[in-house]
Amino acid sequence: MQITVSAELKSIGVFVVYTEVYNATVIKSGVVELDKEIAKLEEKYRGRDPDTLKEDPIVRAYRDFFWRVGIDPTKVRPSGEALRRRLYRGNRFPRVNNVVDSGNIASADTLVPIGLYDLDKIKGSLTITMSKGGEIFYDLGKKDPEILDKGVPIMIDEEPKVLHIYPHRDSKLTAITENTKNILIMGAGVSGVPEELVKQATIMTAEYIVKFAKATWNGEVKEA
What we know:
Radius of gyration: 17 Å
Largest sheet: 5 strands, mixed
Number of domains: 1
Order of helices and strands: EHEHHHHEEEEEEEEHE
CATH class: Alpha Beta
CATH superfamily: Phenylalanyl-trna Synthetase, Chain B, domain 3
CATH architecture: 3-Layer(bba) Sandwich
Distance between the termini: 12 Å
Number of strands: 11
C-alpha cells in the first residue's frame, strides 16, 4: 500500500506512518491477554486529573491542528486525548474487537491517533488531501452519509471513496469487522508531534494485533 500526502497538507504539518498486517483473526471478546493489557492501562492512568491533559505538548499539537482545520477540540477531542481522559476518570476502556482495541491501547498510551482499515476494501493507493466539496462520507458512528464541504482534510482511495477525515473520523466502508483479515495501520502525525512517537504508536499497534489477533507482520514501516 502506498499513501501520499498532498503538498498543501504537508505544508501545515501533516505526516503519517503506516504498516500492514495480514491474516488476523478478528473477534469481539475472549482474548485473556488483551483483557490483561487493558487492565494494566486502566491502572496506569486511573485517578489523574483530566484538566492536566491540555498542557501536554502532544495534546496541544493535535488541538492546534484541529483549530487550524476548523474543528473545536474542546467539543471534538483528538482520539488519543479522548481515550486518555476516560482512563484518567476511571471509566471503562471502550471495547470493539481485538484489532480495534489494539489500536486504541496504543493511541491511549501515546496520544497518537491510530487508523485501522480493511485492506481488501481499499482500491489502489491512498491520498491524503483537501476535499473539493461534495464528497460523500459514511461516518463509522452515524447512520446517514455526510456531504463534505470544501477544504476538509480527507484520505481517499482510487475509486475514489473517502476512508477518513484527518485525523479523527473513519468511514464504515473500510471498518474492521469479524470478516477482516488484512489491515492497514496508520499513525496520524501533525506539526509538533515527533515522528518517532507516531512510528512507535504504529509499531505498537502492529505488535498488539500480532499478539492478540494472531496476525502476521513483516516489520516494514513506511512514512509519508
